[in-house]
Amino acid sequence: MHTVDVMQAMLTLLMATTCPDFFSAQELQAGLIAAAIHDYEYPGVDSSFLVNIRHPMAIRYSDSAILENHHVAAAFASLSDMDVNPMANYSEDDWVLSRKMIIEMVLMTDNQNHFTTLSELRSKLKNSASEFPS
């Protein structure tokens, strides 16, 4: 259910605002894919728990953005095996760019960086308020 909520929130944000005017179709699709996979194969525990029990995922990702790295890696592995892959017909350049954007977006969901990211977003919005129509 959480994934559907996040995708719906993303779609609502995009459709109810002028956001689509600022992003390409490829960026918008990458955002929706990132929303869909951002918690793929979530194990039900947080990263600190995985570090504390020396879980293989914590070791694999060197205790850094463990869950987020796993979500992206597992999702892309699954997408490569699926009959329905939203990026299947992309050119090589578009695939590489979309993958990069999706990885960046999912990694931004790491709660360790939540307050820093939120502060940066608020600062950017405050500094660019004049650029957005009211």
From TrEMBL:
Keywords (A to Z) from UniProt: Hydrolase, Metal-binding, Signal
UniProt-listed Pfam families: PDEase_I
Residue ranges annotated for the PDEase domain, each copy included: 1-134
Coiled coil: none
UniProt cross-references to InterPro entries, sorted A to Z: PDEase (IPR023088), PDEase_catalytic_dom (IPR002073), PDEase_catalytic_dom_sf (IPR036971)
Signal sequence extent: 1-25
Binding site for Zn(2+) 2: 39
GO molecular function annotation: 3',5'-cyclic-nucleotide phosphodiesterase activity; metal ion binding
Source organism, top-level taxon: Eukaryota
GO biological process: signal transduction
Binding of Zn(2+) 1, residues: 2, 38-39
Protein name in UniProt: Calcium/calmodulin-dependent 3',5'-cyclic nucleotide phosphodiesterase, putative
Originating organism: Perkinsus marinus (strain ATCC 50983 / TXsc)
